[in-house]
Amino acid sequence: MFDLGFWELLLIGTIALLVIGPERLPEVARTVGGWVGKLRRYVSSVRSDIDRELRTEELRKMMESQQSELNNLRQRLEKTPEELDQDAGGDGSQYAVRARDDGGSAAAGEESSSGEAAGTEEAPRADRTEPADRPATGERKGE
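Structure for Sec-independent protein translocase protein TatB, as requested:
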C-alpha cells in the first residue's frame, strides 16, 4: 500500500492532535486502527482468492493436457493386432494369441522349429540364486 515513514506518521499524528484534541484522539486512533485492520484483512482475502483461482486454472489446464495425452495413448493402444501389423508391414502371425489346453501341451502351430512348445514360463536365472555360504535375503548368520 502506502509507504509511510517515521516523519510522515509524526506529521499526521501532530495534525490529528491539533485538529481532534487530546481527549478524542485515542478513540479516533482506535477506530482508524480497526478500519485499517479490516481493510488489510479484506485485501489479503481478495489476494488469496485471486491466487487460488489462478492455481485452479493452471491445474485445470494441466489436467486437460494430461487428459488429451491419455486419450491419444488410449487410441494407440486400442489398435488391433492387424492394424499394428499393417503399420509394421508384416502378416500378423506374430500377434496370434497362443493358448494352452488343460494338459499343458502346446496348441497346433505353436511349436518352434526345434520342436519345443512355446510357453510363457520363464527359465530360472542364475543371478537369482544365493551362494550356499551366504544367507538368503532377510536372514542373518547365527540365527
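Residues 99-119 have pLDDT under 50 and may be disordered.
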